[in-house]
Amino acid sequence: MVGTSNVEWDPGLESFKGRSTTTYAAAAAAAATECASCHMPITARTPLSLSVDVTGGTHRDGTEYFSFETQICHRVCRPPALTFTAGHSSPVEFTPQAARLILQNRAAGTATAILVFTYRPMLSFREPGGELTSALVTALLVKGFQLAMSADIGEILRDSGPAADDVACPLTDEGLLTLQAGQATMYHEQLDPADPDDAAWLSAARSGRVLVIGGDNLTFTSAGPDLDTAAQLGTLAAGMIPVAASREDRSDSATIRPYTADSPPVTD
C-alpha cells in the first residue's frame, strides 16, 4: 500500500487516476467527517484508508468509461481496497450535489446568483491511448463553459463568459430551477419562495443570469463548496447562463438523464 499524508490507498488506483491519484486520495480524506465503517468521527491526525469501487465499461468506439465511488475509513476499521466491476449491466444512477450562493458587489449595488454542482459517483472516460478525463467537465466544455483555474468565486465570475446558446436556466414562478443543455436536463431543484434564503437567491437569479460552476472533486460542507481540489486538478468549469421564465411546474422529482458507456453525458 502507498500513502498520501495520513491516508493509505491501493496502488492499483494509479492505473485509473494516474498523476492525480495522490490529490484524489487527499481530497477524499479531507471531505470525510466520519468513518464509513464504524461511523465514528475522523480527526486530522487519524490514520485513514481509502476504498474505491470502480465500475468500468467500453463504448463501441473503444472509449473506456469508469465511475468511482469512494469510502474513507479508520485504518484500524478497514484496510485500503480497490474493486473493479466490468461493464454496465444497467444505467448508472447519478445523484447531484449542489450549493447556491449569492455574490454581492456592494460598490455596484448588484448581486449574482451562483449555482455550484457535481454528480456522485464521478464518471470519467479514456479514449484509446489517452488519459482519463472527467465526463461532466467535458460535457460542460462542449456546451461553451470555460475551465476555471482558480477556486476563488470572485475570480471565476470575473473570468466567465456566456455558455452556448442552447444552455439556459428556466425558472418558474413556483421556484423550480432547471439547468437545460439542449434537450438534456443537467440539474434541477425545487426552491421554496417562502423561505428567506431561497427567496433571496431567486430574486438575484431573476436579474437575468446565473453563474453556474460544475465539475468533479468538489466538496460540500456546512461552510459552503470547496473548489480547491477541482481547480488544482483541472476538473472545474464555469459559465454565465441566462435565466428564462418558465410556466412549467413539476412538483414531482424530475430525473436527471443517467449517462453510461452507451449514452455519454449531455453532448448533444
Folded structure, characterized:
With about 270 residues, the protein is of the alpha+beta class. About 15% of the residues lie in helices and about 40% in strands. Strands 6, 7, 10, 11, 12, 13, 14 and 17 form an 8-stranded mixed β-sheet that branches. Strands 1, 2, 3, 4, 5, 8 and 9 form a 7-stranded mixed β-sheet that branches. A two-stranded antiparallel ribbon has the order 15-16. A hairpin with a 2-residue loop joins strand 12 and strand 13 (about 185-190). The radius of gyration is 19 Å and the shape is globular.
Brief write-up:
The chain is an alpha+beta fold and about 270 residues long. The protein contains 6 helices and 17 strands. The chain is globular and about 55 Å long.
The unreliable regions are: 249-268
- Structural category is alpha+beta
Task: Provide the β-strand percentage band.
Answer: 35-45%
Rg, Cα atoms, Å = 19 Å
Summarize the biggest pleated sheet.
8 strands, mixed
Please count the helical segments: 6
Total number of strands:
17
Order of helices and strands: EEHHEEEEEEEHEHEEEHEEEHE
| End-to-end C-alpha gap | 42 Å
Overall form: globular
Percent of residues in helices comes to: 10-25%
The whole-number mean of residue pLDDT values reads 85
